[in-house]
Design goal:
The chain starts with a helix and ends in a 19-residue tail after the last strand. The protein has a domain of 80 residues: Transcription elongation factor, GreA/GreB, C-terminal domain (Chitinase A, domain 3, Roll), CATH 3.10.50.30. The protein is built from two helices and five strands. The model has no long low-confidence stretch (mean pLDDT 86).
């Protein structure tokens, strides 16, 4: 078991060393791409769903944030509005129609550090 864990640790370290921040400026919106918000129509239950397509390490499915490497992300990538896509997730087939694509808003800039002057002591 320890060998398995050590191998997995090494794999994760390699991935972390290769990881780079994602720049979503000038993102393409003519097709689904990383850095887009995608409105889809779930053909099975006739409901509208919105996904944000983000980087490989970004995933919060309960809030609609999916990694581009996920089955949903892979199915949607590079398709324009109007396209119907199919994918399988947990042994269930799904079919979505892409109804809209827009760029994700830019991430807020981190706050600038503030210098705090030491209080005078007497």
């Amino acid at each position: 078991m320890q060998k398995v864990l050590m191998r997995r640790k090494s794999e994760l370290e390699v991935q972390l060393n290769r990881a780079r921040g994602t720049d979503f400026t000038d993102v393409r919106t003519d097709v689904v791409s990383i850095g887009t918000k995608v409105a889809v129509h779930d053909m099975a239950n006739q409901k509208a769903v919105v996904f944000s397509i983000c980087g490989a390490w970004d995933s919060d499915p309960d809030n609609g944030v999916i990694a581009y490497l996920s089955p949903i992300g892979q199915a949607l990538l590079n398709h324009p509005v109007g396209t119907e896509v199919e994918f399988e997730l947990h042994s269930t087939k799904h079919k979505f129609r892409i109804d809209g694509i827009e760029a994700l808003p830019p991430a807020p800039k981190p706050a600038e550090p503030v210098e705090v002057e030491a209080a005078a002591t007497e």
